[in-house]
Amino acid sequence: MGSTFEPLPATNYRKPLGIRLIEHIKQKTLSYKTYQAIVLIVTFCAYASYHATRKTTSVVKSALDPESDVSLKFSPWWRKNLGRPGSLGSGWAPFNRSDGTSLLGEIDVAFLGVYSFGMYFSGHLGDRLNLRILLTVGMVGTGLFTAMYGVGYWANIHMFSYFLIDQMLAGLFQSTGWPSVVAVVGNWFGKGNRGLIMGIWNAHTSVGNIVGSLVASALLAYGWGWSFVVPGLMIAFVGLVVFLILPVSPESVGAVAEEDQVHSPRKYGEGVTEPLLQSDTEDHKKAVGFIEAWKIPGVAPFALCLFFAKLVAYTFLYWLPFYISHTAIEGKYLSNATSGNLSTIFDVGGVVGGILAGHISDHLDARAITAASFMYCAIPALFFYRSYGSVSLPVNILLMFITGIFVNGPYALITTAVSADLGTHSSLKGNSKALATVTAIIDGTGSVGAAIGPLLTGYISAKSWSAVFTMLMASALVAGLLLTRLVVAEVAAKIAEASRQGGPTSVSPPQNEV
Fold this sequence. Notes:
Layout: E1 4-5, H1 17-26, H2 32-64, H3 100-126, H4 131-154, H5 160-174, H6 177-188, H7 194-201, H8 204-219, H9 226-245, H10 250-253, E2 255-256, H11 259-262, H12 290-294, H13 299-325, H14 336-342, H15 344-364, H16 367-388, H17 393-423, H18 435-460, H19 465-481, H20 484-502
Antiparallel strand pairs: 1-2
């Protein structure tokens, strides 16, 4: 059967307005592969815009609090900017006081705390509501509260509570993004190629960070309020695009896939018979509850693993520019602008690591082995970067790139392919209405670690950066150890499979294997 489009009864689906317009212009229905391309592009842009709005605060903080003593305990990532216009040198009350960095740190911890808390509820809603609508509301809400933060510039607002509450509400709307986009992509792509595809697709995080930094930095000269308003308008616009053209699942638009797209390639001894993309009859199945989702095999170990993996990744995300600018390389200290630009090498390594981890896990059909191996490799990478990153600039770049590969590789794999796999686990008997909930559980738990990591680093770094790296290496070790049971199970399955295939009486797997 070719990649065709076969309409279902009108009561079963309603295409987005933009899709209907495209088909009207082309005078033909869209193919399944075209829908897949639309899903990848739209969700990529959607989550990149989420990260772009999230990243603006790290640029503007240096304008709000330009003169803080670097010895303060909470003076991390906001030093990353591409210049400090003279007109902003006096900062912005209340952040230009002696405790300004602490106030900004409290806002970030509050943002991440609400974000991780809201993630659980967003996943619960995602499995019960239209993902296109939920994603649109989340993006427009994020845009609104991002812009409202910037409005404080023109309204001459100096109340700490205004900025704190605004960012907490922004974090709540931000939490709708990840469970929604992963659930949509998981609906369209089978397990066989999911790791590689999602590894490439996960580059949206780094792209969003870079775009957010460049846009916010370019607008600082016109007043720091624009650095929030423009990204806020950008994500609201992308949210409108999502509403107009995003097909959340094949069933929602009546698309029919090729046989190899409907069913995952079943390997000998795998014991999975359900297709990852179900027919429209699954719409009548009851969504899986929060506690039930925790009980799905593999969810708890991967969620706890991500807690420590994201602790490491987000500590680098928020602290790396500051660390570089305060570490002598070849006996010289780099400027804030140069340090910020140099830190993007870590993101580049993260893109490569995400793609590499996805490809390896697809090839081996072993998500736990891949994730654990990367976490263990991150330990020596962190050690060498701390010990030898100051030798020379080329050595620093190389070690930072390698560290980015091993730190972000498992983080990207777990939040994408692993979450999608577990959301369509065979124990659910074909019910895919756990995808957003599982994604939210895993990434929500990880986001708690993302909030704790930078918080602890703010205090520990005041005494010793070596102690910070020791904490990160210990976290990477714990992350790997948490997957030990799953790794042992995957290794045992591989040995059993090799034994059967290599035996003299090897036979094909039975067709009714469960």
